[in-house]
UniProtKB/TrEMBL annotation:
<comment type="function">
    <text>Member of the two-component regulatory system PhoR/PhoB involved in the phosphate regulon genes expression. PhoR may function as a membrane-associated protein kinase that phosphorylates PhoB in response to environmental signals.</text>
</comment>
<feature type="domain" description="Histidine kinase">
    <location>
        <begin position="211"/>
        <end position="424"/>
    </location>
</feature>
<dbReference type="InterPro" id="IPR005467">
    <property type="entry name" value="His_kinase_dom"/>
</dbReference>
<keyword id="KW-0592">Phosphate transport</keyword>
<dbReference type="InterPro" id="IPR021766">
    <property type="entry name" value="PhoR_N"/>
</dbReference>
<keyword id="KW-0902">Two-component regulatory system</keyword>
<dbReference type="GO" id="GO:0004721">
    <property type="term" value="F:phosphoprotein phosphatase activity"/>
</dbReference>
<dbReference type="GO" id="GO:0000155">
    <property type="term" value="F:phosphorelay sensor kinase activity"/>
</dbReference>
<dbReference type="GO" id="GO:0006817">
    <property type="term" value="P:phosphate ion transport"/>
</dbReference>
<keyword id="KW-0808">Transferase</keyword>
<dbReference type="Pfam" id="PF00512">
    <property type="entry name" value="HisKA"/>
</dbReference>
<dbReference type="InterPro" id="IPR000014">
    <property type="entry name" value="PAS"/>
</dbReference>
<keyword id="KW-0067">ATP-binding</keyword>
<dbReference type="GO" id="GO:0016036">
    <property type="term" value="P:cellular response to phosphate starvation"/>
</dbReference>
<keyword id="KW-0597">Phosphoprotein</keyword>
<dbReference type="Pfam" id="PF02518">
    <property type="entry name" value="HATPase_c"/>
</dbReference>
<keyword id="KW-0418">Kinase</keyword>
Length: 424
């Protein structure tokens, strides 16, 4: 760095010396120094012109210069080479990304800020019917399903769990699951997966469960009727037989509850939409709490806190079942000397129903799976196993039908809180 500044300083010193000698000879010092200054400026203007011409031409060869301008040319040349190498790396990465994405079986479309198509892979041609000429077009003009348009226009940001099922625009009887993943500055990645076989298997499973449950109901009802008749005749049979029939009746009743829950889950998972009616949640909670007070078994007392009289719109019978499941679960796992609090309140988020207890609590590793079918948590000191393992699965499905969420807070030894959030 010192050398080019030294060259520049010596160049200026030489001009000043020549101007001084010329002024001494001619006696016009002002004109001599003005000429030296004009010569110095002319040199810089000449190099600026060369720099501009070089930048415009895009040539790799660096212009010749001296002193300060040699350093400027060199630094710009090095910056241009560095940017060129970076551009090559980016292009190579982009090519690798496009090659990898093109090989995916899922349709992948890059969308701009106005939902215009920037790029798509070969699977998008097969599943969505896109063509090369569609680049630059808005995707909602090509995929016109109302639910897809509504999903695409919903407020940002999307999460990986957000998705919508639509029919394929080109494949008959094919179902696509569409996800939107935001990335970059205003860009979004649309991923459409063919879930035709998956939805078919889900429908087969649902139909199988429904059919088996229906077929089991009739023989189970007959068996239950005979067992109840035998229980009524307990005075005419040996004591040991009565205990056997009593256990059989209990298991028959448990199987009846299981079948009823399976049928409800099947109904919730079908395309059946819940009824839209006024649901007086405070009255429902009072009714459930009053019914639990009549239970024969000893249980923890329930405290009901109604902070708002607000109603919601939905299916009253389904919501009654969901709330009842949560309260009965709290009764099962909370000792008689414990306490249970049921709340109905409203805040800036929306309406919320909570069931809080000070029972044994649930370990954190079980919380993500506790709403799965038949998932049971072994809790020390609790021997109650009368449940079917479907209660929380039913609660989750009922709430999802009402655009609500089930949120669970729990800590071993400190109790649990199950909240039904009805968001605005």
């Amino acid at each position: 760095m010192r050398s080019f500044w030294q060259f520049e300083a010596s160049w200026i010193s030489g001009l000043l010396l020549v101007a001084l000698l010329a002024g001494k000879v001619s006696g016009a010092y002002l004109a001599a120094f003005t000429g030296a200054l004009a010569l110095y400026l002319l040199r810089h203007i000449l190099h600026l012109y060369r720099l501009l011409a070089w930048l415009r031409s895009g040539k790799r060869k660096m212009p010749l210069g001296s002193g300060l301008w040699e350093e400027i040319y060199y630094l710009l040349y090095r910056l241009m080479r560095r940017n060129k190498r970076r551009k090559k790396r980016l292009l190579h990465m982009l090519e690798r990304f496009q090659t990898a994405t093109a090989a995916l079986p899922d349709a992948t479309v890059v969308l701009g800020v106005r939902n215009e198509i920037i790029w798509f892979n070969d699977a998008a041609i097969t599943l969505l019917g896109l063509r090369k000429s569609d680049v630059g077009q808005q995707v909602i003009n090509l995929v016109r399903f109302p639910q897809f348009v509504e999903f695409l226009r919903q407020p940002q940001p999307h999460t990986q769990l957000d998705s919508v099922d639509i029919a394929s625009p080109v494949l008959m009887d094919a179902r696509l699951q569409v996800r939107i993943v935001p990335y970059g500055e205003g860009l979004r990645l649309l991923v459409a997966q063919d879930v035709t076989q998956l939805r078919f298997m889900e429908r087969v499973r649902s139909d199988f469960v429904a059919n088996v449950s229906h077929e089991l109901r009739t023989p189970l009802t007959v068996l239950k009727g005979y067992l109840e008749t035998l229980e009524d005749a307990q005075e005419q049979m040996p004591r040991r037989y009565f205990q056997i029939f009593k256990r059989m009746n209990e298991q028959t009743r448990r199987m009846q509850y299981l079948i009823d829950d399976l049928l409800m889950l099947t109904r919730l998972e079908s395309d059946h939409k819940p009824r839209s009616e006024d649901v007086p949640v405070p009255d429902i909670l009072r009714e459930i709490c009053d019914e639990t007070a009549l239970m024969k078994e000893e249980h923890a007392p329930i405290s009901l806190e109604i902070a708002t009289q607000a109603h919601i719109t939905g299916d009253k019978s389904l919501l009654y079942s969901a709330f009842s499941n949560l309260i009965v679960n709290a009764l099962k796992y909370t000792p008689a000397q414990g306490r249970i609090t049921v709340r109905w309140l409203q805040d800036e988020i929306g309406l919320r129903m909570e069931v809080e207890d000070n029972g044994p609590g649930i370990a954190v590793e079980h919380l993500p799976r506790i709403t799965e079918r038949f998932y049971r948590v072994e809790i020390g000191g609790v021997s109650n196993k009368d449940g079917t393992g479907l209660g929380l699965a039913i609660v989750k499905h009922v709430l999802s039908r009402h655009n609500a969420e089930l949120r669970i807070r729990s800590k071993p030894g400190e109790g649990s809180c199950f909240g039904c959030y009805f968001l605005h």
